[in-house]
Design brief:
The protein is of the alpha/beta class. The protein has ten helices and ten strands. The strands form two sheets. A five-stranded mixed β-sheet has the order 3-2-1-4-5, with helices on both faces. Bound molecules: 5'-O-[(R)-(carboxyoxy)(hydroxy)phosphoryl]adenosine (KG4) and zinc ion. 5'-O-[(R)-(carboxyoxy)(hydroxy)phosphoryl]adenosine binds next to helix 5 and helix 6.
Length: about 325
Amino acid sequence: MYILGIETTCDETACAIVQDGFEILGHTISSQIDLHSVFGGVVPELASRRHIDIIRPVVEQTVAESGLTLRDIDAVAVAKGPGLIGALLVGIHFAQGLSWSLQKPLIGINHIEAHLYAAIMSQKTAPLFPSLGIVLSGGHTSLVKIFDIGNYELIGETIDDAIGEAFDKAAKILGLGYPGGPIIETHAREGNPHTYPFKGGQVKKRPLDFSFSGIKTKLLYTVRGQNGVHETEPITPAMLNDLCASFQRAVFDDVLAKTRLALTTFTAHAIYLGGGVTQNKYLRALFEKELPIPSYWPSFSLCLDNAAMIAGLAFHKQPFTDELLTVQPETRMPF
Ligand code: KG4
Ligand code: ZN
């Protein structure tokens, strides 16, 4: 079965064709980083307009790369949320048009669920359940029990900034570019992670929830003095590296501690991780070293927003309920 997937939830316009949930035949991601980096973050209206301009060539390029024709497609899948309303509408309307013209079913997919599926589809072996799922992206930070593909229980989430957002905001405070995660990781490699005693936040009576707004403020006060009004001292390159290393260590120590705690609440056979932050090599090494069960990661091309995870997950939604006339964008969507 060939499924064509479309992803436009935020600032990547992506299309992929996936065979039987695993084999990627065509895969295109058009990033908008050039458009948004000058603003230090995603500008929703600009994102929607770029999606409109680029979606058709992105789909055409993917079909050409796959060696198939549109007539070979068995179903169309689209990320229906969570995401930016205007951005979602572009992908959904395009997918509806395609599904209608091909007379094939349309399947609406939860983008966050698809991030976890990216780790499952990246393995050669069958998934192990029950397992712990961890989504670490620019918009989400979630811990879930995975009983099967499509059967989850949310056990922890962020109450303020998402983890990727925390990296992006930290980079902004430090005068680094956007997106912040990869830049902080690069500087952190040269720094001492124990120079600054940063710590992830704890949420009262909700030990598996995350809070990253405090650590961001702590970083701000460290570089600009109390209340963030002036610079205490110029940041030398060595200080910058130590700040990045300490920030990264604190954030990932917090994720590790909450992962350990989550693993005490049920018997998990494995951990599946997804989302842009899982590109981070320090995080991968930390999990491999510290945890007693295997961690499974998306291949590097499936960490950031992409449509292969959308088309791949859709395969597991059979028997299909055709959402051609009912699909709605959902800016917020329960896991
Ligand atoms: O999954 P994603 O494309 O976006 C959402 O669905 O929200 O992830 C983007 C996020 C950005 O916040 C970016 O800073 C972060 O992933 N990121 C990283 C790294 N690469 C990307 N964070 C930490 N380390 C990295 N190497
Ligand atoms: Zn995402």
